[in-house]
Amino acid sequence: MTEPLVRIANVRKRFGRETALDNVSLEFARGAFTVLLGPSGSGKTTLLNVLGGFLEPDDGEVVIDGQDMRGLPPAVRPTTTVFQDYALFPHMTVGANVGFGLRMRGDGRTARDEKAREALKLVGLEEAFGRRPHQLSGGQRQRVALARALVVEPKVLLLDEPLGALDLKLRRQMQDELKILQKRIGTTFVHVTHDQEEAMALADTIVVMNRGRIEDAGTPERVYAHPASYFTAGFMGEVTSFGGETLGGGLVATPVGRVRITGAAAAGQRVRLALRPEAMTIGPAGPGSQSLGDLRVAEVVFQGASKRILGKLGPASAPIPAIVRADAASSVSEGDVLPVSMLPGALLVYPEAE
Q1: Exposed/middle/buried for residue 176 (C-beta within 10 Å: 0-12, 13-18, 19+)
Q2: What is the value of pTM for the model shown?
Q3: Residues 213/228, Cβ–Cβ less than 8 Å
Q4: For the range 25-30, what are the long-range contacts, defined as Cβ-Cβ under 8 Å and sequence gap of 24 or more?
Q5: pLDDT digits (tens, 9 = 90+) for 269-306
Q6: What are the backbone dihedrals phi and psi of residue 182, each rounded to the nearest 5 degrees, phi first?
Q7: Separation in Å, CA 47 to CA 38, 51, 52, 53, 239
Q8: Quick check: 145 and 162 in contact, CB under 8 A?
Q9: Which 3 state secondary structure label does DSSP give 175?
Q10: How many degrees, rounded to 5, is the angle at CA 96 between CA 120 and CA 151?
Q11: Residue of 20, 156, 163, 180 with fewest CB within 10 Å of its CB?
């Protein structure tokens, strides 16, 4: 079995009375693209700063390529960090910005210029060597920051929400470029974001964080389709959620009637059920699908390739907010009352205590 490049073991970090990291243990594979995903205050940036040496953990250890990082400052760690604000020096040329880390390391002018040009070529900006940062677009400045981080050949590249300041189109373009670049050079990337779509577009492994703890970790496909916790289910995408009580035999009594779940569950357990919008279908239940009753449509939002339909399920006395995705050409209007069914095996089931 291949040894992980990065090993984080039982790391804790507090700021006064606030616990930012609570016994976090993780491993990052060599050459993998790992995304730390979570809401504000979840601990993802704190964990990145612990990896980069900007913060020391109160407890636990961080090991990179077999070396204990305890007490090592950022300048001597085998990591570099790319920040959201780029942190480029405005008075320096692009080439000088990219070569700055090499200059601090003691490399001569000729050697660092050569390496800076190679790094800029890697990110498609070789012609920008003599320009100033203010002469570049936001996306180009981000690529310069990437080149500056990569030119020192780190074992781990840390990215702290580097695409957050870009507009949607440019952000998606940079996501594609980042993924291609990482595969080409094979450096281990650890990327922080609160954007679920960005995480799924980039990651080999998504680590979902909440209140300083790891909620879930796995491939994007697994974490989205089969999240390990109710928090992860809701954070990774929209869900229609309702409670129920298990009846045994794979059946659960809910406000929308009895529904069938996969897996065994003893009778009498309170559970929380969740459904993705794409797992629900407008229309009567067909072979293998299950009816959820009628959806009272409150709003229809056109989203280009599809329509996002918001409404209520269940009894009028205790309505359940529901979100269904329908084809863009479907004829659905506010005020409609429509039968809704769900695909077999689509229900996500969690203990009520979550």
Answers
A1: exposed
A2: 0.90
A3: no
A4: 25/60, 25/214, 26/207, 26/214, 26/217, 28/4, 28/156, 28/188, 28/190, 28/205, 29/2, 29/4, 29/5, 29/188, 29/204, 29/205, 30/2, 30/3, 30/4, 30/5, 30/188
A5: 999 999 999 999 999 988 889 999 999 999 999 999 99
A6: -60, -40
A7: 12, 6, 9, 10, 28
A8: yes
A9: helix
A10: 45
A11: 180
Task: Give the list of residues 6+ apart from residue 152 with CB closer than 8 angstroms, or none.
Answer: 80, 101, 102, 105
Q: What is the pLDDT of residues 225-282, one digit of tens each?
A: 999 999 999 999 999 999 999 998 889 999 999 998 887 778 899 999 999 999 999 9
Nearest-Å Rg of the Cα atoms of the chain is 24
Residue type for 320, please? I
Lowest mean pLDDT segment, chosen from 26-35, 143-152, 166-175, 216-225: 166-175
Instruction: Tell me the average pLDDT across 113-142.
Output: 91
Give 152's strand partners: none
Per-residue tokens: 259: 């529904």
